[in-house]
Batch of 2 targets.
Target 1
Amino acid sequence: MPITYTSGEQVEVYRFSIPVTIGVPVLALFLQAFVPLRFPRFAVYVDLPLLVTIFFAISRRSPIAGLFTGAVIGLAQDMIGHNPIGIYGIAKTVVGYMASSLGVRLDVENAGARLLVTLAFYLVHSAVYFTVARGLVNMTQQWSWGHGILAALVNGILGVFLYFLLDRFKQRT
Amino acid sequence: MESVLGRYRNLIILAGVLFLQVIGLAVQVKRIGSEEKDTRLIRIWVVGAVAPFERAVVWVQNSASGVWHNYFYLRGVRAENRQLKEQIEQMRLEQVRLSEDAAQARRLQNLLAFKEQFVSKTVAAQVIGSGGSDLSRIVYIDKGEQDGLKRDMAVITSDGIVGKVLQVFRTPSVSQVLLISDQSSGVGAILEKSRLQGVLRGTANGEVVLERVMSDEQVQSGETVLTSGGDQIFPKGLPVGTVTRVGSGKDLFLTIKVKPAANLSKLEEVLVLVEKQERQAVAEDKGRVRAADILAQRLPSVPDKPAADPNAKPVGAVGTVSPGTSVKPGTTPLASPATKAATSPTRPAGAVTTGTAPVTSAPKPKATTTASGPKTAGTADLQPSITEQKPPITQVAEPTPQQPADDSPH
């Protein structure tokens, strides 16, 4: 029975099997690297590892698990690219922590809430990435609200469908 | 104390994890420009986890596509074959013309002792993955260290340059290629017509711009951009792209937007230049060729005359070259009809005047004269071809009733 109240005691905590815990992020990374070869815009607007991070963090509802999930997925995403390792790592660590902290307090099981949460966390992720890339690594970055909001919307919509798909792998504790 | 730690445990762990990553970033940024050996190992883990999937998917995709296109979908192949055959015929004609031009270019390069880089060996590779982010414009190819790839090798397609090899892995045998559209990329480039040189860079939004061209220079949209060879990665003269927009940039430089010749967003197969040779261009071994020969070849000609008796007395003064006489190429009949007549084995050929002393060169297919004047590389090149010094030989173009010489005194 889905829980709709926001009390921490009543919110249900889920766990995932080891194959899902490892396989889903690897698959997300693979798709993130492979799909842009056929659809170049995919890399511009979609961040599948971020969606997976948000999903696991919200479902587990443990800030420590969330931040470590974000850190591992983010660092792996950094390793696929050629930029210094840690930029995505830091951004996704923050998102993982915030998403799991939010999951403890709020119900994010319905589509509307998931859309808004994903949209907001995409912007948070972009802001952290921008700050780290520009401030620490001295990369040339351009902030564009138009692009940011559009990409957040795309990720939000995609996230809603993805989360419903991933819900099948949830195991109640 | 324990209660404080317990209360803020999550935040403390968050701060710790973030701090470690910041330290890691700082170390990498400090060592930027090095071989990145520190981060290489952990990159291999992730690449090793993802690359087999990518290889498998590409293999399945190509196999399915191959079966469909090679066995089932053959509609229009016959008509296409006919068209291609016609195209081959046309291209053969074009090839003849181009090979002549290329031979001439090689000869001229030889005259100038021009050194250039030649692409001597390439390795074909398939693109199997990308960086997965618009902030990391790289692709992965399915060839690595085992295939002879090394860091900083140029990567091209038949359309133009793509990028350079950034990292090479042994297991899995893949390589990371930095595209020219990445903002950390830099390529030495030259504009084809105006010969202005600049540096080609990628921008944050994935565009490619040519920098370091002074703002007082004239650059036209549509002009072709080539590699200049100055970066020591790409050989000179490879197509880079075309100028799409020219605007005033920072300081005293123009901002020239370039559309890459290669479609960087849809790469499938690429070539990696694994071996470049720097050697001197060698002229085709058809005897020594001079600049005047080339000019002579370009002049209009008339059909060869029948072989004449070598003992026949010279008639008329047509084509006679006196010692020390300078003859402008193209203004003397020696360079055209008489030149051809002189190729007959029955008559001495190759009378040359260098402007100082008349000499006879080794037998050549065509006898020509060189203009007198300051010695150039071309003139200097003539010296080894001199075999013996003889009195000036008069070349005769015998006027016949059928073929009167223009400059005949008759």
Note: Helices of chain B lie at 2-7, 9-30, 37-72, 77-111, 291-298, 337-341, 377-382.
Target 2
Amino acid sequence: MVGILVCQIVLSIILAAIFLVRPSLTTGTAWKIVAFIGLCVLPALCIVGGMNTHMQRSEQTKFCTSCHAMENYGKSLYLNDPKFIPAQHFQNHRVPPDMACYSCHTDYTIYGPLKDKLKGMTRIYMQYVSTPPNPITIPGGFQNAQCLHCHAGARGFEENPVHSAMMSTLTSNQLSCISSGCHDSVHAASQVDHLKMWSPGQ
Amino acid sequence: MKLSQIGIERLFRIASLLIILGLGLEIISLLWFHPLSFVLFAFVAASLIGLGILVYLASLVFAVSALGQNRG
């Protein structure tokens, strides 16, 4: 996919370079059509293809953890303790490991709709211009929909008497899945350096 | 007509240059694996390419109006 996009970009650059050096070529009808393709159609397709590629790339775990503020969150996926929900999901492939962040944070920053993308831009501003918050929090809190997206309808989840007793409060987000006393061990980003880590292949 | 042709050619050159710059930055953004590469693409590369397309389309409008003036 990226290969096709790169070929498209190279072709656009070649055509644009021809018209940069010899703009007088466009007096001929055939060259007018070539100019329309090279200076309008192909560059527009390059924007669409580039946006698509960047959006797909931003869903990768290594993209998220490439940001300094996210380093400890990335490390927390390797915590050697099954009580930590993100680590347990990541290590047991309950979420695709190469898209671990995106699987549980689909509404977060640039992954969500336009409103969330704009919020994502404020995070970039905080990272490079002001100061990122410490600890990092999700505006509006973690939504249960992220868990229920996979767990709702699953036998083990539905047949659990604790879950079935409070199903309406979970679906309406009145009670968070990660609230105290439930699945409250999440990233523990500030403690990862003091906790035991799991090494794949050990 | 000749003066208009020179103006159109200049617009073509500007459009080509903007598109080449934008596409060059798009390639850099694709090679650079970092959250800022998205910013580089979305705010700089895409803007330059979009501006290049607009300049090209403006040159077409300019060409048509110049042709109309010559006929009139």
Note: Chain B has a mean pLDDT of 86.
